[in-house]
């Protein structure tokens, strides 16, 4: 995973503008690479995702639990403090994730939703919908996979790329 500036061809040492989706503490001023590891437990009911910097320092961890109709992930920082809870609602046609502050799933802590743009897609496209956004088009965030055979995707704020994710072949 790599953060990017307005131009996807930005050089690694040039500053990028901050866009905080969860908190400014998780923003960087320049392009940065991360390593994401996924571990599965017995019977594939639990998953653990770990995010490291290139020096192999743990930055984030997401512990997941899979139930019959949904999955829940608790994302924590390197000090094991909860950041957000991601709760999947599988009975929706657009495969929606609700994101809550900390380790809560209570309505007052609901921050935003992430869902597929449409029910049937060839190239993955996700909308990030903030609950308190009076003008959804103005502050619109989307994640788009480059194409069906690609292992890269970009996150957009409007038409501006703010992050790019690449997976090795």
TrEMBL record:
InterPro entries: LOR, LOR_sf, Tubby-like_C
Similarity field: Belongs to the LOR family.
Annotated protein name in UniProt: Uncharacterized protein
Organism: Chenopodium quinoa
